């Protein structure tokens, strides 16, 4: 169970990093490729956000496959 919570926390950190990249870092005028940084932010939010939701499902409802 501790591994599940660690994974949820890690996924949430990456989602927060994606939000930070998308909102503040990409608007930095000294940045050479702001579109790339925004795209990376969107990717982090989407990929780790889905992972976070899947982890929540495992925490609340159990594993994907039940043991026979």
Furnish the topology, listing elements before pairings.
Layout: H1 2-23, H2 34-61
Helix pairs in contact: 1-2
Transmembrane segments: 42-64
Keywords: Membrane, Transmembrane, Transmembrane helix
Helix residue percentage:
over 70%
Q: Give the overall pLDDT as a whole number.
A: 89
Largest sheet: none
User: Helix/strand/pairing class, anyone?
Assistant: mainly alpha
> Rounded to an integer, what's the Rg over CA atoms?
16 Å
Please, how many domains?
Answer: 1
Please give the number of β-strands: 0
Uncertain segments are none
Strand content: under 5%
Helix count, DSSP H or I runs of 4 or more residues: 2
Q: Give the ordered list of helices and strands.
A: HH
What is the end-to-end distance? 20 Å
Transmembrane segments: 42-64
Keywords: Membrane, Transmembrane, Transmembrane helix
Key descriptive features of the protein:
68 residues, 0% strand
At a glance:
The chain has 68 residues and is an all-alpha fold. The protein has one domain (2-61).
Give structural notes:
By secondary structure, the chain is mainly α. The protein has one domain (2-61). Helix content is 74%, strand content 0%. It contains 2 helices and no strands. The chain has helices at residues 2-23, 34-61. α1 runs antiparallel to α2. The longest helix has 28 residues, at 34-61. It is elongated, with a radius of gyration of 16 Å. It starts with a helix and ends in a 7-residue tail after the last helix. The model has no long low-confidence stretch (mean pLDDT 89). The chain crosses the membrane at residues 42-64. Keywords: Membrane, Transmembrane, Transmembrane helix.
